[in-house]
Design a protein that fits this description.
Elements (H helix, E strand, L loop, with lengths): L1 H12 L1 H22 L2 H29 L5 H19 L3 H35 L5 E6 L2 E6 L8 E4 L9 E5 L2 E4 L1 H4 L5 E3 L4 E2 L4 E2 L4 E5 L7 H14 L3 H26 L1 H4 L4 H15 L2 H5 L2 H13 L2 E3 L2 H7 L4 E5 H5 E12 L5 H12 L5 H17 L27 E6 L3 E6 L2 E6 L1 H4 L8 H12 L3 E9 L8 E15 L3 H10 L4 E5 L4 H11 L3 E3 L4 H15 L2 E5 L5 H6 L2 E5 L5 H6 L2 E3 L6 H36 L4 H19 L5
Parallel strand pairs: 11-18, 11-20, 18-19, 20-21, 21-22
Antiparallel strand pairs: 1-2, 3-9, 4-7, 4-9, 5-6, 5-8, 10-22, 12-17, 13-14, 14-15, 15-16, 16-17
Length: 672
């Protein structure tokens, strides 16, 4: 029972594809039957191919004709196909029925591709909706009760436990935690939140339980605004699509009107007999049908898509391959795009009496008990440093009596005791009879009277570059000394989001390709943004942006440069990705929403592939223009030959199909 259900579901979700496949199979077997002389079977199979493959085009064409009073290529193709079939029956040249069926098959395939493109918006919205939980834990008369998000009211108090998603925007009434809101605001570091701070729906709670008061309706939350922005941006037809629609309708009108005139006027103007007139009119419909024009575009774009896929570039539709070749400006998100999105130790500066290894080991001894991302980065860096320095240690080194931090022994670090974390300030603990203090400058100064001036200057310089500076101090007995020592600073540790290694080279290459404007958009602070921009040679920076702010910047760039690309990875980038002429998402680090919304996905997160995609787009434009010139040239020659009476219908069909094959083969050049 499982297989029939899957088949039924597949046919329901991919109706256009199934219709195109059936049309192709019926066409093949019908042609085979004609080849063997089985006319009865051929006349059964070929009409079925016409009906199955042409139903959707006929329905759309007739709907447009009767409701909008417009003619389009869908109806023109059906008329041309039926005309070819009728002429084939009349003159018993049954191969013309095959030609008509081929025309219908081409349009059936195009309809299937269009259907997949239309379904993309619905998938994007469904992915966005899944980012927030369906229910919230509400406090009612001192008891927790789960209710649907839609039933939340302003003033309700909700409880969010560690590791849970925030269900709606609100204000913290009690509790303290760090929230990972990079996907919403683009901030590279998790943000510490306590009483009175605002939290956003869709952000991930850290280690602390929070009691939150709903201060706005759930439908007005930031994530819901993102959803509406994505939906609006994706449903707005770009100018190029509007131009194609107008051209298609105009072309159909001209051909239909010309066909009618050609079928009625020649007997009165030039004395043609009616048989010749109808014959020429039907030949006109066949040779004037835009199959070669259609083939001039799609095979080229599909070849470019296949080429890109081999290089780790996923184009979601052919139109975006064309558009990226026209890009004049590119906007980059910072966190997770130009940077790795992972917090790491950037630099360790030790005081004169200590080494970098001493500083990292001391900090890691207490930070190993912390769930804070900065603490995890310090522990990771300390482990790597210890493994590097382990080969240099003396065999007479004093053995560590305390239990290792890692049961597997990967880190040769001392475990601390009496560890206490002070929210928003730092952490203290005792390791090897010494009290270790790790935190910001204000916190450390509670234990150390004076901070070394040299370290203060270095810390200030690092902070101006957008780095987060952590101070490390100790109080206790000094190694190898007698008596007690006071509190003293061991050093500082700079924490930063690492810039991708290929980011600077990518920006340089894009400038060489003639991209007129490259900007960076981020929700992070101005100092951090400017630091990253300087590292990758981006001159224009927009910092501290919410999702709607990024959308406004993209719209401003489109007014100046028309075709604009946006490169991003987070939920906060989704509206901008949708609004941009071409949205490009990072395939590995990107959120599901960014991947669904974007038109192009860099599957290996390699920024340098953006330049490759632009080159592919420009090549595709060049080939498409060449193919259109050839297709139109053939149509003009065939129409002239038909009007002068120097070609018959079989020659017209050969010329028409030959031009289609020629431009198709030309498009396949992009496979190289």
């Amino acid at each position: 029972m499982l297989y029939p259900q899957r088949f039924t579901q597949f046919t329901r979700e991919h109706t256009d594809t199934v219709a195109a496949l059936l049309c192709g199979l019926l066409l093949f077997f019908g042609w085979f039957a004609l080849h063997l002389g089985w006319l009865g079977l051929a006349f059964l199979l070929l009409p079925a191919a016409y009906v199955i493959g042409g139903y959707e085009s006929a329905r759309e064409g007739l709907t447009t004709l009767f409701k909008e009073k417009e003619l389009d290529v869908d109806l023109l193709m059906i008329v041309a196909a039926i005309g070819a079939a009728s002429l084939g029956l009349w003159r018993r040249e049954y191969h013309l029925i095959i030609d008509g069926a081929i025309l219908i098959l081409i349009f059936a395939i195009s309809g299937a591709l269009e259907g997949y493109a239309m379904a993309r918006t619905e998938r994007s919205i469904r992915s966005l909706m899944s980012l927030t939980p369906d229910t919230a834990r509400v406090l009612l008369q001192g008891r927790e009760e789960e209710i649907p998000i839609s039933q939340l009211k302003v003033g309700d108090e909700i409880v969010v436990k560690p590791g849970e998603l925030i269900p709606t925007d609100g204000i913290i009434l009690s509790g303290y935690s760090t929230l990972n809101q990079a996907a919403i605001t683009g901030e590279s570091l998790p943000v510490e939140k306590t009483v009175g701070a605002e939290v956003f729906a869709g952000t991930l709670n850290g280690y602390g339980a929070l009691q939150i008061k709903v201060h706005k309706p759930a439908q007005s939350s930031l994530i819901q605004r993102v959803i509406r922005l994505v939906e609006q941006a994706q449903t707005e037809a770009p100018p190029s699509q509007e131009f194609i629609d107008r051209f298609e309708k105009g072309y159909a009108k001209v051909i239909v009107v010309a066909g009618v005139l050609l079928a009625t006027l020649p007997p009165f103007l030039w004395g043609w007999d009616w048989e010749t007139t109808i014959y020429r009119a039907l030949t006109f419909l066949v040779v004037a049908s835009p199959c070669a024009l259609m083939a001039a575009i799609m095979p080229t774009l599909l070849s470019g898509i296949a080429n890109g896929a081999r290089q780790g570039i996923l184009f979601k539709n052919g139109a975006q391959l064309e558009k990226i070749g026209k890009v004049r400006a590119i906007a980059f998100d910072k966190t997770g795009t130009l940077t790795t999105g992972q917090v790491q130790v950037f630099q360790v500066i030790a005081a004169s009496e200590y080494s970098q290894e001493n500083v990292l080991k001391a900090a890691a001894s207490v930070e190993s008990y912390s769930e804070h991302p900065i603490g995890k980065a310090i522990v990771q860096a300390a482990g790597e440093t210890v493994r590097v320095f382990s080969a240099r240690r003396s065999a007479k080194a004093v053995p560590v009596e305390s239990k290792p931090l890692n049961p597997k022994g990967d880190l040769d670090l001392v475990g601390a005791i009496q560890v206490q974390a002070i929210p928003g300030q730092g952490i203290v603990g005792i390791a090897q009879e010494q009290q270790i203090i790790v935190g910001n400058a204000v916190f450390v100064q509670q234990y150390v009277t004076n901070l070394p001036e040299e370290l203060q200057e270095m810390a200030q310089s690092l902070e101006q570059e957008g780095k987060t500076v952590v101070w490390v101090a100790q109080v206790g007995r000094g190694a190898g000394e007698q008596g007690s020592r006071g509190a003293e600073v061991m050093g500082v540790i700079a924490i930063a989001d690492e810039v991708r290694s290929q980011a600077a080279a990518t920006i340089s290459r894009l400038k060489q390709l003639g991209i007129e404007q490259i900007v960076m958009l981020t929700g992070d602070n101005e100092k951090t943004a400017q630091s990253v921009a300087k590292a990758v040679a981006i001159d224009r920076v927009y910092a501290q942006l919410l999702p709607e702010d990024k959308l406004d910047v993209i719209r401003l760039l489109q007014q100046q440069y028309q075709t604009v690309a946006m490169v991003g990875d987070g939920i906060n980038d989704a509206p901008a990705l949708a609004q941009a002429s071409v949205g490009i998402a990072m395939g590995i680090s990107g959120s599901d929403v960014a991947l669904e919304t974007a038109d192009i996905v860099l599957m290996a997160d390699k920024l340098e592939k953006i330049a490759v995609a632009i080159h592919l787009g420009r090549r595709s434009q060049s080939i498409v223009k060449q193919n259109i010139f050839v297709a139109l040239g053939f149509i003009v020659l065939l129409l002239m030959g038909n009007f002068l009476g120097s070609i018959n219908l079989p020659i017209g069909v050969i010329g028409h199909e030959g031009s289609t094959v020629l431009v198709t083969l030309s498009g396949l050049r992009l496979l190289k």
